[in-house]
Amino acid sequence: MLVVVEFTSARYKLSPIARQARSVAAMDERARAHASEEDEDWTPSAGDVAQTAASAASPLVSDMDFEASLAEFQELARSAGAQIAAVLVQRRAKPDAATLVGGGKLDEIVATVASTGASLVLFDHDLTPSQARNVEARLPVTVIDRTQLILDIFARHARTREGMLQVELAQLDYSLPRLGGKGKTMSQTGGGIGTRGPGETQLEVDKRKINVRIDRIKQQLEAVRRIRRQQRGRREAVPVPTVALVGYTNAGKSTLFNSLTGAEVLASERMFATLDPKLRQLTLPSRRRILVSDTVGFIRNLPHGLVTSFRATLEEVERAELLLHVRDAASPTLEEQRVQVEAVLEELGVSRKPVLQVLNKIDLLPPDEIFPPDAIPVSGMTGQGLDALLKAIDAALTRDPLMEAEFRIPQSEGRVIASLERGATMLQQRYEGNLVYLKAVGPTSLLERYRRYQWKGAESAHATESDGSAGEI
Ligand SMILES: Nc1nc2c(ncn2[C@@H]2O[C@H](COP(=O)(O)OP(=O)(O)OP(=O)(O)O)[C@@H](O)[C@H]2O)c(=O)[nH]1
Ligand SMILES: [Mg+2]
């Protein structure tokens, strides 16, 4: 499938690193001349704007409904600020080894770029380094594949230092084997066997520079992570369970996070709005406190390197006691998205964690819609269903499950009473002489701490109430 995307330069700029990688990777003599004429770093200029995208119908895409897949890719392109000038589609049993799309289709791309004045060609598929070189050789404009587009979106959305370093690392990793296509051509013009052409020399210099940069980034990342581990160590001294929101990009995780925690995290119709983990404290109906974390969204064919480089960001997911899989109930690709998210969770090694299925955006559905019994329907936008969601979180936290207990505590033990009032929900509370009678629901760890004041377990609560023996100890 192929999309020709037109960009207005005012809104679309490749991130600096993508530009740098490109200017190193893809410049032959012609391109260098072209670039220096107009704009040093190949940023599309006003009249000279566009981009294209393509993908052969390979097994990678065939498992998603074709229309939905195409629509999603266009959404991604728009998230990067692109305007789509044309969409070209190719279906093939097998990708062409040299150019991904067939020769006829490539001619068509060349003609479309010429007729639309597009300045970029975007492929909804990854190009091997040699495919990228071959396709670029035929086109006067920049060619970007699916991974590069996603990396570019990531680059513009990263906010923390760690996020930025991670994206840059992923971009450099991806661009390294893609360097030097044109350099190879140049070295051939440079002469016979054993001679080193000017292009190749430049290429070696470029590769060395990038390798040096990669090492620097890795060191910096390590330093950032060390600090974060220390902070976490401090946090874990007081064990508060973490609940992580996971899900497909645009499912509404940040919106839900905001309405659950009263935070102001950026929620946006742009894909991959959230890249850096956000943590907020939340008190559940049981008074139990938890940390909720909002995370980066997943997407079909998330570039493999990205998953690994975002491992650290996704550490919150790994550490979480419970996952909330937030799903866009109004999406036509609801089921496909679930499969993709579960695949990423598998890759992160967290597929065994307890998960609550949260069907979000129910405000967009008819009111009589029927949901599967294990799903929790909510709307992060309107707040519908949030109470039920909080209760479900309470019930699902198994490390320190909720229990019910009755207490008789001397009034002089004000500290114990206060601690129970803070950490548990009071069902009943009354004075009995110099004792305080409490019936409470709360985390086992808290209620068991005051076991010596417990009177009878929750199981017998009904029996004791009906046989009127509440006054006995
Ligand atoms: N109608 C409706 N729209 C919602 C709801 N929740 C989120 N949205 C919209 O869906 C879009 C995506 O919301 P986000 O909260 O940014 O989604 P996200 O899952 O955090 O996305 P990424 O961070 O990009 O992975 C925004 O335009 C929201 O306004 C909802 O309950 N109902
Ligand atoms: Mg988000």
UniProtKB/TrEMBL annotation:
Q: Does the keyword Protein transport apply?
A: no
| Molecular-function annotations in GO | GTP binding; GTPase activity; metal ion binding; ribosome binding
Entry cofactors: Mg(2+)
In terms of InterPro entries, this protein maps to: G_HFLX_dom, GTP-bd, GTP-bd_M, GTPase_HflX, GTPase_HflX_N, GTPase_HflX_N_sf, P-loop_NTPase
Cellular location(s)? Cytoplasm
Magnesium among keywords: yes
Which residues are recorded as binding Mg(2+)? S254, T274
What's in the GO CC field? cytoplasm
**The Hflx-type G domain, residue ranges:** 241-401
A Pfam family annotated for this UniProt entry = GTP-bdg_N
Specify which residues bind GTP according to the UniProt entry for this protein. Answer: 247-254, 272-276, 294-297, 360-363
- Residues folding into a coiled coil are 207-234
The alphabetized UniProt keywords are: Coiled coil, Cytoplasm, GTP-binding, Magnesium, Metal-binding, Nucleotide-binding
Q: HAMAP family in the record, alphabetically?
A: GTPase_HflX (MF_00900)
Q: What does this protein do?
A: GTPase that associates with the 50S ribosomal subunit and may have a role during protein synthesis or ribosome biogenesis.
| Matching PANTHER family | GTP-BINDING PROTEIN 6-RELATED, GTP-BINDING PROTEIN HFLX
How does this polypeptide assemble, per the annotation? Monomer. Associates with the 50S ribosomal subunit.
The record's family statement is: Belongs to the TRAFAC class OBG-HflX-like GTPase superfamily. HflX GTPase family.
Name the chain's protein.
GTPase HflX
Q: Which organism is it from?
A: Bryocella elongata
- What gene name does this entry carry? hflX
